[in-house]
Amino acid sequence: MFATRSTQLIRPARSVQGSLVLPGDKSISHRYAMLAGLAEGVTRLWNFSTGADPHSSLACMAALGASVVADPVSRQVTITGTAGRFREPEGSLDCGNSGSTMRMLAGLVAPHLHTFTLIGDASLSARPMERIRRPLAQMGAEIHLTGGDGAVGGHAPMRIVGRPLTAISFEAPIASAQVKTAVLFAGLQATGTTSVTETIRTRDHTEHALRAFGATLTRSADLLSIPGQQHLRAIEATVPGDISSAAFFLAAGLLFPDTNLVLDSIGMNPTRAVLLDVVTALGAKIRVLNVEEHHGELVGTIQVTSDPKPRTSGGPFEISGSLAAQLIDEIPVLAAIAPYTAVGIRVRDARELRVKESDRIALVARGLRAMGAEVSEFDDGLDVPGGQRLHGASIDSGADHRIAMAFSVAALRASGDTEIHGAEAASISFPEFFCALDDLAKR
């Protein structure tokens, strides 16, 4: 996955204090990049994610005929779209490590009358793609997976032979914003009105992004409907700060009694901001300083301090059901710092963590045990008791960005130094992470 492996030394801290402006939200950056590539006109985006994953989406848009200019210093991206007419790429569409790119892109390109081959690195090539193939095939798409069509383990490389699509009524069998997005992107260009039913509501960045680019879609209770044959127009937008990246600093704020952090211009979409309720329940005190709305997304500045009287009884804080789906990206860091909390954490219904960039349930359990914690591992989650003391250890990230960052946070309160091996994985979503953490950690 990476040319070289690096090791990051994390020393214990005595507090975390300061202010931080986070790079743009990774989920929103992906969607804006793809829709801008399909739209007519010139889209200008500010504070685009600096992570490698959304830049894989940008590279795929360029390969499909969009003009892409990215300035890494200003975080500004300019995309001249294809006005709904992707060209056939000269080679494979390289999605890198990004499952979001591969799964959502499949729905975006399937209606175009070309042949597309989607590839990724070793990690991405091991992740399940049948969940995407099945609904798109129902719409008339021809998609071939490695491992055999129809196989539960079907994966990339993925070959798509584009053809006209017909609307379907799709009931999502798993809670996945990526699957929902693939179907909506295909439905946007299909004949008829496509509907998606979610029994567990997932993050709704796709719905907001589609409307921002001029598409019409409606939601009624658990049912989303999108008419086909729609055309998109370019936008100008600033991407909110990534709340999943903010999660690492929110979790760090739980570790010390004199925490004082200010996180500026953070995305506070209600389907993601439930994280703030969770860290509050675990002992943080959150003050929202201001909130604005941009293209349907809520953006705010928050101050994080420590609650002088956190909950100390009533059993572990439970993350399960719809909450597990909403917090799927944040669970690793919440579990990694759970031993330091008063009540601990119980995670269930999070089996999806087994098929992310790594088996995150297994890696979190392994890392916590290496640091001396008591932890119980289950097929769909973890039990991590609170009130524990951890020591520094040697942690292998498993080439997973969220594992590398989660244990860097846990290391701040451990006794002794911690080595994070495979620290370069953080660049997938947050290249600036270690510098930002070091700036805020007071020693």
Can you describe this structure?
By secondary structure, the chain is an alpha/beta fold. The chain folds into two domains: 7-24 and 241-442, UDP-n-acetylglucosamine1-carboxyvinyl-transferase, Chain, CATH 3.65.10; 26-238, UDP-n-acetylglucosamine1-carboxyvinyl-transferase, Chain, CATH 3.65.10.10. Helices cover 29% and strands 26% of the residues. The chain has 13 helices and 24 strands. It has helices at residues 26-38, 52-63, 99-109, 130-138, 177-189, 205-212, 243-253, 274-281, 321-326, 331-337, 360-370, 401-410, 433-440; strands spanning 7-10, 15-21, 42-46, 67-71, 76-80, 93-94, 115-119, 142-146, 155-161, 169-171, 193-197, 218-220, 223-227, 236-238, 260-267, 284-294, 297-306, 317-319, 345-347, 376-378, 381-384, 394-396, 418-421, 441-442. The strands form six sheets. A five-stranded mixed sheet has the order 16-17-15-2-24. The protein has a four-stranded mixed sheet with strand order 4-5-3-14, with helices on one face. It has a four-stranded mixed sheet with strand order 6-7-9-8. A hairpin with a 2-residue loop joins strand 20 and strand 21 (381-384). Helix 1 (26-38) runs parallel beside helix 2, helix 1 runs parallel beside helix 6 and helix 2 (52-63) runs parallel beside helix 3. The longest helix is centred in the first third of the chain and has 13 residues, at 26-38. It is globular. The model has no long low-confidence stretch (mean pLDDT 94).
